[in-house]
Design goal:
The chain is built from two helices and six strands. The chain is of the alpha+beta class. The strands form two sheets. It has a three-stranded antiparallel sheet with strand order 1-4-5. It has a three-stranded mixed sheet with strand order 2-6-3, with no helix packed on it.
């Protein structure tokens, strides 16, 4: 059986032509929609990159301001150290020189404390490996000294709840 292809009628031809126009119009609308979405995506990518750059600049500015604040606290300490050096070259009184240096140390610790620096407690406290580093274990006879920090070799510091340098200590051990 042979299939004979017939020619569409005028009415069918008009309908097909109308459908082709509808599809072409829909295709144009979809292309326009895709182009709009592509434009929106490109704009969003640019906005996101600008936002990321602004955040980076803000972070850098914040770091600089934090550093400036700390440095402003420490500059008077530097001034006092210079004064102490000048005074020590003109004085033979060792006690007044030591007192001046102690005052400067307190001033420096105060400035750093304002920035959140804490000195780790040592002598008399329980040994804590999270904040203390034992460099020597000392035999003790008294129960109250067992597991206690007996001597501080080097101060340790905590900043923002994190140990930035453990304290070096000698620890008592009954035995």
């Amino acid at each position: 059986m042979r299939h004979v292809r017939r020619k569409p009628t005028k009415r069918e031809y008009k309908k097909l032509l109308e459908r082709v126009r509808e599809l072409e119009s829909e295709k144009a609308n979809l292309r326009e929609l895709v182009d709009n979405y592509r434009g929106m995506l490109a704009k969003m990518q640019i906005d996101f990159n600008n936002f990321r750059k602004r955040i980076e600049r803000d972070k850098e500015m914040e770091r600089a301001m934090a550093s400036e604040r700390v440095i402003k606290e420490i500059i008077p300490v530097l001034d006092n150290l210079e004064h102490a050096i000048q005074a020590s070259s003109n004085s033979s009184d060792a006690e007044s020189i030591v007192n001046g240096i102690r005052m400067i140390l307190r001033q420096l610790l105060s400035a750093l404390s304002k920035e959140g620096l804490e000195v780790i407690p040592t002598v008399g406290s329980d040994f804590d490996p999270a904040v203390h580093e034992a460099v020597e274990v000392v035999n003790v006879n008294d129960d109250k000294d067992d597991g206690k920090v007996l001597f501080e070799i080097r101060k340790g510091y905590i900043l923002g709840g994190r140990v930035i340098r453990p304290a070096l200590v000698k620890v008592g051990k009954k035995g």
